Amino acid sequence: MNLFKYFREEIIKSVEAIIPGLDTSKVTAEPPRETAHGDVATNAAMVLTKAAGMKPRDLAEKIAERLRAHPAVTEVEVAGPGFINLRLADSFWYERLAEVLAAGVTYGQSEMGKGHKVNVEYVSANPTGPMHIGHARGAVFGDALASLLVKAGYDVTREYYVNDAGSQVDVLARSAFLRYREALGEEIGEIPEGLYPGEYLKPAGQALAKKHGPALKDKSEEEWLPELRSFAVDAMLDMIKDDLAGLGVRHDVFVSERGLVEGGKVQESLDYLNSQGLIYEGVLEPPKGKLPDDWEARPQTLFKATGFGDDVDRPLKKSDGSWTYFASDIAYHQDKYRRGFASMIDVWGADHGGYVKRMQAAVKAVSQGGGDLDVKLCQMVNLLKGGQPYKMSKRAGTFVTLRDLVEAVGKDVVRFIMLTRKNDAHLDFDLDKVLEQSRDNPVFYVQYAHARCHSVMRHAAGMWPESVGHTPGVDVLARLTDPAELGLIRLLAGWPRQVESAAEAHEPHRVAFYLYELAAAFHGLWNKGKDDTSLRFLIEGDREVSLARLGLLRAVVGVIASGLGIFGVTPVEEMR
């Protein structure tokens, strides 16, 4: 139960009883900014004052009078210019705690997105080498966002777009051919500039040598390039999938750019745009600021992107007559739309920020306004050790691999830390800090709360074997009367709202913030029990209050596990 949605509906009922027919779409019910103001706050009187023809405070008083009759409401206050604050009965919170216990790790699941398909495309790195730490952030973000949307009830497809039709794939094939010659015993010397230098291509070269022997060596590039292109892409995709599996990242669908081109999808897409009068031959204005050395005023095939919110129209063909990347990307997104995905989310690196408007314009054009594209940009990750920039091994030749990072600190640490900042904020990943056992390390702090709960429950099983799996009723849960206990229950009851609001905003980092806040509240209650023995979780002479507190611990365990499940992180029962 999203209690804030529930009270929004109750508030709207009160409004309709006073003045029927008002547009209540802007009415909200949210937690107050300060807990001292109550449990639920609404702007109803503020946003309806004009339509109701009443002063905000006068309308607020009328709404408040009706809400005072609600059985779960103990106090209603009209504050400031017309905000309404509600305070809820303790019995309401005990009922919510019982809901948490009944649902376990499924608590927070929502039907908000029921019947709504969403395509989340993430990673989509060029298949030219292993994953590096820059890819890790987008991979984790996209995977967690997909899981968050599933939790909120959406039908989600996780997708990877394989950029296997560009010139970089020809460079990859030439690089693989060099390693093939090396595997045959040839001395290749330094890797020529323009080819990929990483040793990760050695296995591909060895596999080619085993398959073909020296047969390819004396053939022309024109003869061996097509086969090596396909072979090398497949080998790199296998490596990428293996890297991602080590991080716990998976995709449902892999779509090949080359497949779209060879299947005529790019031409088909541009024919469609042309039929809509959205393609023309023209000359673009020079870019603002310093002109690039290779810029020239020349006629180009252009897409009318400005008609759909972009700043300038965009080229679809290069000077040699081949399609631009943008042309292929238009076809790819039209293909998504035709596969039934009106809602699309693309996760890109921050260096692609200038590409967002044109792609959103293209989606509007090829879907006739029926498609929506949300692009999430992931900023850079700064790798540190002890607060200083750090370089790990460079098996890839020019960059630090994702596999290096996972091997250094573990999959779960990488995943959690990558989600502790908003995706478009820079993130410092300090190899020392992320393994530190302190409050400053969020993954440790949350996991420690989960492990502490299990420690108490194991101890309780020795004292009262019947407590294992026991679910206390609301009457027993009513023994939880300390403000810290009730505050923890309020936080737990807010989890469904956190899931829905984070899913709606496409912001999984909100889950990390929530889990940290929940862990802090739990640790605070633990420390309070150190100073006041009556607040300890297990009191030998009071079985009932102990069972109530064990129920509270089980609820904390369930919600932490639920949140970590969205992140793809395994909750621990013991800290090592």
From TrEMBL:
It is found in: Cytoplasm. One of its GO terms (molecular function) is ATP binding. Residues 446-575 form the DALR anticodon binding domain. It is an enzyme of class 6 (ligase). It comes from the Bacteria. Its EC number is 6.1.1.19. One of its GO terms (cellular component) is cytoplasm. SMART domains: Arg_tRNA_synt_N (SM01016), DALR_1 (SM00836). Its main location: cytoplasm. GO terms for biological process: arginyl-tRNA aminoacylation. Keywords: Aminoacyl-tRNA synthetase, ATP-binding, Cytoplasm, Ligase, Nucleotide-binding, Protein biosynthesis. Belongs to the class-I aminoacyl-tRNA synthetase family. Monomer. This is Arginine--tRNA ligase. It comes from Paramagnetospirillum magnetotacticum MS-1.
